[in-house]
Amino acid sequence: MNKKFAxxxxxxxxxxxxxxxxxxxxxxxKDAMKSATGNAMKxxxxxxxxxxxxxxxxxxxxxxxxxxxxGQVMSMLNNAELTIDGVYQSEPMQTELTMGIxxxxxxxxxFNIPMVMTKEKLYVxxxxxxxxxxxxxxxxxxxxxxxxxELAEQEGTKxxxxxxxxxxxxxxxxxxxxxxxxxxxxxKYFKDIKVKDANLPDGVDAKQVVQFYVTNExxxxxxxxxxxxxAPKLLDIVSKDEYRDMLGLTKEDxxxxxxxxxxxxxxxxxxxxxxxxxxxxxxxxxxxxxIDKKDFPSYQDAIANVEMNDPETxxxxxxxxxxxxxxxxxxxxxxxxxxxxxxxxxITMEQLEKEMGAASY
Length: 361
Fold this sequence. Notes:
Elements: H1 3-14, H2 29-40, E1 45-60, H3 64-77, E2 81-89, E3 94-103, E4 109-118, E5 121-125, E6 143-147, H4 148-154, H5 166-183, H6 186-189, E7 190-193, E8 208-213, H7 219-238, H8 241-247, H9 251-262, H10 267-274, H11 276-279, E9 280-291, E10 297-309, E11 316-328, E12 346-348, H12 349-359
Parallel strand pairs: 6-12
Antiparallel strand pairs: 1-2, 1-11, 2-3, 3-4, 4-5, 5-6, 7-8, 8-9, 9-10, 10-11
Helix pairs in contact: 2-5, 5-7, 7-9
């Protein structure tokens, strides 16, 4: 089996962790997830807290050069944490996020990167961290402003405001999730979890918790459903003019993706899927979504504990990670702690490059 194919399957399965869900009443788990997608589109503002924790990451290889190159990286990423605290509103479009990075191991470090995004501009605060010693002192803690329209022009492309259209993004997500839910059997992949057994954080109010899960017993079928049924329909969705333009894709891009997908069909695909058991072990893969009394997704956690072993090269990958998302103050008036940075706190890319050039002499 082609290792890239196994990685693709794993990636596709893990991509399901971004599902947003909610429901109007306690329903059959699959129905609750399907009806939730439309309700999630009504989220026009919210506060959010997200965390990604890599609990265990091991890569072993018979190739000594590969092993040496990955050793230090693995040391840094084990027990690493990525946090994102933010506020979002759709009208006028404004988002602010503070991304926290906490690396462990021999090169341990922690730092935060505040960011602000409007419909046409992105502001990123320049942190003071060892890896950025080349940044001039005067630029540290200023906000690097990136004009998305100017960047597009510099790259020889036209700025597409649709790429920042939250409503269209929500519509696209709605179609994708409905397609996904429609193809998976509710009895095999969805179930209710008792609220008291869901280990929800303090402050999370839930009337229903729905779990999507994949096990060693159904992973082959799950992958087969995704490749044969879900993926072709997803390509049809993104090929629509409004979505294709929003995503910056061309008709040729879509046609090539369809061709690549079709090339994996038939006997080759069947063999690859059958060989999954020789490569992939799922110790745990679950996505729990808590639905509050207002029928919005208030909390979500995804746990993945998987191993991939290549019997030919003897290369092994073990990954254990947890992702959590918590939403609050949904559709309330939001308070932005950072706000739009003042002119005195801003530095342009041109100014930064000039200061870096001066500092190098």
